[in-house]
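Progress narrative, Year 2. Work on DUF2530 domain-containing protein from Kitasatospora herbaricolor advanced from sequence curation to structure prediction during this period.
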Amino acid sequence: MPKTALRPSPPPLEANDVAIVGGGTVLWFVAFLVLLPFHGTLAAQGRGDWQWICLAGAGLGLIGLWYCRARRAAIARDRAAADDASAAGGPERETNGQSPTNG
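Result:
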């Protein structure tokens, strides 16, 4: 069976990561607030850690929000630097990590 030629990788999909992570963080915190009045009942049934799991999810979501915002800012800085380099007549950058001569 003959080998087919390798195709270039498609560009990464753009998504609003901050909104997605923010929505998940809000849902975890709402779940914590909903379970808070039932702490005694849940603890009596051996499920007293559920609310703390929700609070931990909200805390990790806040870390995720920080990461997504920092990532978004880094991507914007990289694009601005690439635009400045191309406007100045500098070498073009490949988005898939390959140089134009490597194929």
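Residues 50-87 form the longest helix (38 residues). The mean pLDDT is 86.
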